[in-house]
Every structure is written in structure tokens, then in C-alpha cells.
Amino acid sequence: MTAISRAAQFAQRTAHLRASTIREMLKVTQQPDVISFGGGLPAPELFPTEAIAQATQRVMERLGSAALQYSVTEGIPEMRIWVAERLTRRCGGIFSAEAVQIVNGSQQGLDLVGKIFLDPGDHVVLEDPSYLGAIQAFDAYQTRYLTVETDEDGLVPESLEEVLERADPFPKFLYLVPNFQNPTGRTLSGRRRETVVRICEHFGLPIVEDDPYGELRFEGTDLPPLLSYRSTAPIIYSGTGSKIMAPGMRIAWLLVQDEAIREKIVLAKQGADLHSGTFAQYVFHEYVSDGDAFDAHVRRIAQTYAHRRGVMAEALAEFMPEGVRFTRPAGGMFLWVTVPNVDTAELLKISAASKVVFVPGVNFYSGRDVHDGMRLNFSNATEKNIRLGVERLAHAIRLYQR
Amino acid sequence: MTAISRAAQFAQRTAHLRASTIREMLKVTQQPDVISFGGGLPAPELFPTEAIAQATQRVMERLGSAALQYSVTEGIPEMRIWVAERLTRRCGGIFSAEAVQIVNGSQQGLDLVGKIFLDPGDHVVLEDPSYLGAIQAFDAYQTRYLTVETDEDGLVPESLEEVLERADPFPKFLYLVPNFQNPTGRTLSGRRRETVVRICEHFGLPIVEDDPYGELRFEGTDLPPLLSYRSTAPIIYSGTGSKIMAPGMRIAWLLVQDEAIREKIVLAKQGADLHSGTFAQYVFHEYVSDGDAFDAHVRRIAQTYAHRRGVMAEALAEFMPEGVRFTRPAGGMFLWVTVPNVDTAELLKISAASKVVFVPGVNFYSGRDVHDGMRLNFSNATEKNIRLGVERLAHAIRLYQR
């Protein structure tokens, strides 16, 4: 159909290439007795349903119609202040509510970043592997990718330097997930954080720092976000309520200190949907504004996921054939398994028949074809199912290897 | 700043050109004793605040965490069914829930339509004058406009035909608001509706039918939407809950019967923000699903606005200098005033000093420079303020004419 835009054609082509195995996986997930490590869902049993109903009641009594009217593009002031204060407390830096843009889930933040930076053919620098949702958001702008190597400590600074030295055209920004990365679960080490900021500063490259899981740390101490280092190159920070409150609220935020960039983000948001839901923002804010209760809630989520991560790691150690390696993330929702000499997209067909699914690693790579990885989600299954699922998966690998 | 995308540069330039008087107007609106006919806000005193708090309570009791989890890109099934059934009842046609895409306010629907159809330099056909929010949404795709004449019966079919005959490049779609148009309040006559559909069918031009006010009819009988005519050229219908329930919910919908187009809309929505808020969708649906109460609510809104429209029309007849003409819309939220030989952007400066504001008509024109129009909103002021505001406005015109 020739009437369709080039961007839509491009997005459809890339989506088809990237997502066919994921669609296959999702189909299988619908079956009742399938154990899915494939999605990225938070544990619904931890959602504060009753507290949200009460928060809504309080909002309606206090604000009435103001909670249902059109509101400003940047977000309601209460939410912007809350985001700035929470980040200030977590990071030690001082962040202003002025710098906050409320968005509909972090996916919209990534889309707006794509919209204001990217022209067809532009380069974006990604970790390899990287978050699939970000790749899909940027694909809509007919983007190409330059990829940087990663290891146990996250993105490798020497590789970033090398990529930037020979990049042509020079990329528009670096996108990375420094804490408990999706898909690998790895964290950019404290030592490397400032190095990465300095390299980007040297080259004048903006950084898009995506931090959906930063508050879900199981052990060790928090590392400063890249945003907390002073830099002449702009850093756009993306945070979300999806993993610490509930994804169905679609409340997330960008923190953009660079005024010229922020102005363009606001304009893009205005054109995209005027503003985020007034109702959802007020209810979200009312719920989180009891700070002690909310902190306790976030701790409970982290403890639950820590336990599930532990169960999954134990089961992997117990059931997997020799040679299989896996990460043991200090937070977040995912771990990464490497099965040498196995094409995990092929493995998925066997494992789906054994009623356990995952996302084949190849979907997360933009730079190289890497077929032996898989992403396992541990936040959305019971401990019993985690053990059973890993056992089935190990069995599927043995079948494949036969 | 060279790192910014061409789309962002274009959007900033056009926004600056179009919106400077609107920004001026909004600044004045902040002052407490200013009467604003400038915005497009529904009457907040009609929002069902207590009913929404109760609906939230019921949703949480019945669905619990399912109302807070990630959900599918197309929208929750309940909402899609409700939209299809309501449109079926209103229009006589038969519409399928499959064809419905839930979006974050109709602005997002327009943005997604822009995203899947428009490349830089592409033409879109607009009524002249046309809705500013649509122009802003399409501007993000570096679009150009072809404009069609309008009269008391809406878009002039002969003018549309003429525009399409000499269009080069051929446009991607026609965008129009057939019922109680924003900004003029005019309605495309019943006789012209099928003619417009047949012209577009003849030329193979898709139609984007934006219908935010269709349910707010004050008098006369409903006219069938363009969507209800069978056509080989695709018709994309846009509806919203903003004017019949509350805009702060950000719940609106596209109805797209063409499967190939719908597939691209879904993909664009997925890249843009994954899905609309699960929480807001369930609460919205719970509220509207008591059909009799909701119908009564919509009637109450229409009756209130009809009364305000009447008060405004009377005041205009009473206070305005000779030669001033105005529309008397059969529904919606706006009427259009023509003040011959007056530049209404200049008039705004005088009227703002007299503490009444409006949107100068020039902002809605893409094809010609028309300076003597103004858009007045009658839904968001009390009857007393409507009379007082019109009196002030008439005074400002006399000052201008001196």
C-alpha cells in the first residue's frame, strides 16, 4: 500500500523481523498450564488494589472535578515535585521539579526522545544486547544502531570509545539501562559510571539513561545514576512507576535538565497526546504520598523478587546441564542464561512443547547474531513454578542436545 | 542545535508561528477576573466525581490486580465492545469491536494517523478553518496542507473536488470534523455527507472523520457519520470520552475497519506507549456501563451547553455592533464570530485589557490569511459570565473601531 508512510513501512518490517519469535511465545503463553519466563510483568499479587480505591476516594473528595479536567502537558505539579524529591533523596544530587516531564509509561518517554532526536538513517548507540522496547520505539524513526560490548560490569567503556571514534554519521545519543539491565540483569559498575559520562562528554554525545528497576535492589548499595555526575553533554533520565506501583497506571517520567531539549520534549508530548491522564496522576500521587507506607511497599516488592531470583538461580544450578552459565542480578526482574552451542530460538519450539517459555536472546541484539542466550523473568511466577519451569527448561535443553 | 531531528525543528517553528497568540491568551486567562471564551474545556461542574470514586471501588473489588497490570495494545476488550456497540446504536451501521483501538485522548489518535500516513512534504486536506490540535499533530510529520472551502453547511464538495483534481503530490487523507466543527460550530449537511464520501472514493482518498462533539446535539436529528456509508476508500473514525465523561481520563478511540491500516495503527501505538492505562479504561468502562444513567448524564451535558449557547447567541445579538455575524451551532462547544474589517489578533490585546479573551481565527486557517474571525467557547462559563464577557467583547470591538 503506497499511501502508508515510510516510517510505518520501516516499523512494520523491523517489527516483523524482531518479533516473530515473541509472537510465537505469547501464543503459547495463553495456554493455562504453560510456565512463562518470557514476559516482563511485575507480580500482580503485590499491587495495592485496596489502597488505590481509597486513594481515588480521597482524591475525589478533596479535588473533585479538578482531578478529571484537562491539565498541563508537563504533568500535574504534585507529581513533578514528588519525582524530583524522590530522585534527589535517592541520588544525593539536587533535581528540580521544573526538569520533570510526566509520560504514559517509559515507552512514551523513549518515543518522545526518538521523535525529537532522530531522522531517518541516524545512528543510536546501544548496549549489545539491549532492551527490546527501546529498539522498537527508535525503529519508528528509521534508525540504525551502533553497538557497544558489555561484560559482567555492564557496558565496556573502551568499546564505547572505539565505536564513537569511527562512527559515521556521528550518533544522536547513547541509550543504556545501567541498573539490572533488561535483558541481562547486569549493572554498570560504580567505577565505570563516571568513565562513561566523561567519554560522552568528550564526544558531546547525549545520554539516555533508562532506570526502570533502580529501586528494586536486592543486595549491595545503590550506585549513583549517571545523571548525578555533572556533564556538559545532556543526560536524559527515564524513571517509571510501573515496577514500584503498577504498570496499568501508565505513569512514568523523564528528567531533562537541558532546557532546550526539555522544550522540545514538551512540544512533542503536546502533539502526541496533550498530557498524561489527570485522574491517573492524582490517584498515583495520592497513593505514593504516604512516604513510609510506599517505601515499605517498594521494599516488599524487592524482597519478594530477591527471593524468586534466589529460587531461580538455585534451580538453574541444580537442573541445568554442564556448560550452561547464568547471571545472578543484584536487582530487577530478569536474568540471562547462556547455553553454549544452542540456538535458543530453536530451543523455544522444544521448550514450548514442554510448557515453558522464555525470550530467545537473539531478539535483543542489534550488532551481532548471538543465538545462545535467553532472557528469563523471575518476578511473575511462584517459587514452585520457577523450580518446575527451570526443570522443564533443562529437560528441553537435553532433548535439543541429543 | 544540530543534534535535534528535522521533525522537532519543524514542529517548533510551526508551533511558534501558530501558537504565539494562544500563549498570550493563556497567560491572561490565569488572572482571576478574566472571562475566558478561549479554551475548549468542558464544564467541570458536570463531571461525575462521586460516581467515578464508586466505580473505582467496584472495579478493584471485582477485578483486583487485573485492573493495574499491563494490558493489550488495542485496549481492554470491554472498552472496545462498548465503543462498537454505542456507535452501532447511534449510527445504525454494524461496527465490530475488532475495529476499535483505544487511545489516550483523540490527540493521540490523530498523532498515530499522522505517524502511519505522513512523510515529510506530504499533503493533508483540511477544511479551512480547521481544528488546531489536528494541525499540531500533523505538523510533527513535516506536513503541508491543501484547504477546502467551507460554508454554513460545512465543507463545500465542489471545492474538495477541485482541490483533489490539481493536487500534487496527491494528499494522504482528508481530515474533517463533520459535527459542530471546531472552530466554527458548523455541521456538514446530510445531503453533503454521501457526496463527500463518493468524491473521496472516486479519488481513492482516505477520510479521517473526527467526531468529538457528535453526542452533544442540542436540536434537530442526528446525521449519519461518514463512516456509515459504504466506501472503498478507508474511513478512520475518531471518537472520545473527553466531552461526554471527562477529559482527564484520556480515553478516546479510533474505529478503523481497514485491516491493513489497523495493523499499522496498532504497531504505532505499541511503539508510542505500549497501551492506554488499564486502570483508567476499567474505571471508565465501569462508569459508562450503566447505560441509562450514562445516557441521562450525556443529555444533561447537552442541555446545559444548549442553554449556554442560547445565552451567548442572545448576548451577541444584543451587544455586538452592526455588521458582526455569528454562527448558532446545533451542538458542541464553540461558535464562530466574524467581525468585518477587524484584525482579531489585534483585538485580543484590547479585549484582554478588558478582561475577556478568545482565540483569534487566524490560528485555524492553513490556506488563507483570514483575520476577522474569532472562536468563542460557551461550555465553560456561567450564564452570567457569558453575558458579561460578550458585553466586554462588544465594548472592545467598539474601542478597536474608533
Overview of the molecule:
- Two copies of one chain form a homodimer.
- Chain A is of the alpha/beta class.
- Chain A folds into two domains: 6-47 and 294-401, Aspartate Aminotransferase, domain 1; 63-290, Type I PLP-dependent aspartate aminotransferase-like (Major domain) (Aspartate Aminotransferase, domain 2, 3-Layer(aba) Sandwich), CATH 3.40.640.10.
- Helix content of chain A is 46%, strand content 13%.
- The first copy, chain A, is built from twelve helices and 15 strands.
- Chain A has helices at 6-29, 49-63, 77-91, 105-117, 132-139, 157-166, 190-203, 259-273, 278-288, 291-319, 344-353, 383-401, and strands spanning 35-36, 100-103, 123-127, 144-148, 150-151, 154-155, 174-176, 207-210, 235-240, 252-256, 325-326, 334-338, 356-357, 359-360, 373-377.
- A seven-stranded mixed sheet of chain A has the order 2-10-9-8-7-3-4, with helices on both faces. A four-stranded antiparallel sheet of chain A has the order 11-12-15-14. A two-stranded parallel sheet of chain A has the order 1-13.
- In chain A, helix 4 packs across helix 8 and helix 11 packs across helix 12 (383-401).
- Chain A starts with 5 loop residues before the first helix and ends with a helix.
- Chains A and B meet through helix 1, helix 2, helix 4, helix 5 and helix 8 of A and helix 1, helix 2, helix 4, helix 5 and helix 8 of B.
Secondary structure topology:
The structure is a homodimer of 402-residue chains.
Chain A: H1 6-29, E1 35-36, H2 49-63, H3 77-91, E2 100-103, H4 105-117, E3 123-127, H5 132-139, E4 144-148, E5 150-151, E6 154-155, H6 157-166, E7 174-176, H7 190-203, E8 207-210, E9 235-240, E10 252-256, H8 259-273, H9 278-288, H10 291-319, E11 325-326, E12 334-338, H11 344-353, E13 356-357, E14 359-360, E15 373-377, H12 383-401
Parallel strand pairs in A: 1-13, 3-4, 3-7, 7-8, 8-9
Antiparallel strand pairs in A: 2-10, 5-6, 9-10, 11-12, 12-15, 14-15
Helix pairs in contact in A: 2-9, 4-5, 4-8, 6-7, 10-12, 11-12
